[in-house]
Amino acid sequence: MSELNIPKLKIDRPVLIYGIIFSILFSYILFNSVGDRHLYVFFIGLGLGVSLYQAAFGFTGGWRNFIEKRDSKSLRAQIIMLALAVVVFSIFINSKSLIYNGTMIGAIAPVGTSVVIGSFIFGLAMQLGGGCGSGTLFTAGSGNLKMVITLIFFIIGSLIGSYHFEFWTNLPSLGGISLLNIFSKIQTILIQLSLLTLIYIFISKLDFNRNNKITHSDIISNSSHDFIRGPWPLLWGAVSLVFFSFLMLQAAGHPWSVTFAFGLWGAKIASAIGIDVASWSYWQLEYPSTALENSVLADPTTVSNIGIILGALIGSSLSGKISKFSSVNKKLIMAAVLGGLFMGYGARLAFGCNIGALFGGIASGSLHGWVWFLFAFLGSVVGVKLRKYFY
């Protein structure tokens, strides 16, 4: 039976209604307790969640498909997404926001030992856990039990990583290197687009050599796409993620990030049970200490993550493919535990995950984003080989 003859699944109306009602209630709480700026961030998070789910836009599966089969479709879509983000972000970073009275800053982090090791650990672990930073959120939001377990241990790993943060950051480092501080905006755009073009051509050639054919239209359209019900073509996902990320830059004042909130949630829970998290060096830094002192709803990353979860819930209900909570075997549970734990730890060492470090870093012109990309991919190569022991 062809895809054209496959009947559309029915919209899961009860879950859709639940997602909408909860989103409205959360919006009301945000507006009254924090303010309209965080409300904007929440709405953007909803858009990101729907986009991630409808386009199935995860890094983990796309990298694994390329490593195992040289299927470059998802990886090429990610390169296009990065190219679009580089152009947009390079223009607007270090300028005044259109939404609030402040300057938008890029995701610049040190290029050092911690990034190399942390990104390698993250790349390996995301293949075990079955999802990256954003992938864990949107698949957990769609009801996937294994990814809920991964998310729980992601939080624990992030907290442990913050405890060891001082040790790793004292290792050799070149410091933060921003291309926008070295070159003009136009030069930065041209340099990064040239690198991304070379990568696109290289992976396309490897795909063709292995599979004897390649069609670039596979990321532009598919035979069954539907804007409301999904699935979206990968290009739709790439464009929508750049669009909502640009809005996030305007509303939050910094690029879209995911994993800081996981560490914050863990720190809040640890503090509640009597652990003196505030004495750790990481939580004495200016931004983390402020986040730890304030309400968790005052953290934009927390608000956007909740939006992503609810957006994915709404997207999965529209498609009629909400995951039902079902049992998972011991091997899958172990993979989720190890994957989540080491993703959280690796993300803290590497100053972010595939979103905050790779996407946000490269879009911001930060060299650490490119280092993260390289070593996380190498880690994924190892992770794919280890994956066979769990799946």
Could you explain how this protein is built, in words?
The chain is built from 17 helices and two strands. With 391 residues, it is an all-alpha fold. Residues 1-7 have low confidence and may be disordered. It is globular. A two-stranded antiparallel sheet has the order 1-2. It is 68% helix and 2% strand.
Summarize the structure.
The chain is mostly helical and 391 residues long. 68% of the residues lie in helices and 2% in strands.
Helix content: 55-70%
The neighbouring-strand order within the major sheet is 1-2
Order of helices and strands: HHHHEHHHHEHHHHHHHHH
Number of DSSP strand runs? 2
Shape verdict: globular
Question: Mean pLDDT, as a whole number?
Answer: 90
End-to-end separation in angstroms reads 28 Å
Count of alpha/pi helices: 17
Largest sheet: 2 strands, antiparallel
Going by helix content, strand content and strand pairing, the class is mainly alpha
Low-confidence stretches: 1-7
Radius of gyration: 20 Å
What quaternary form is this?
single chain
Give the percentage of residues in beta strands: under 5%
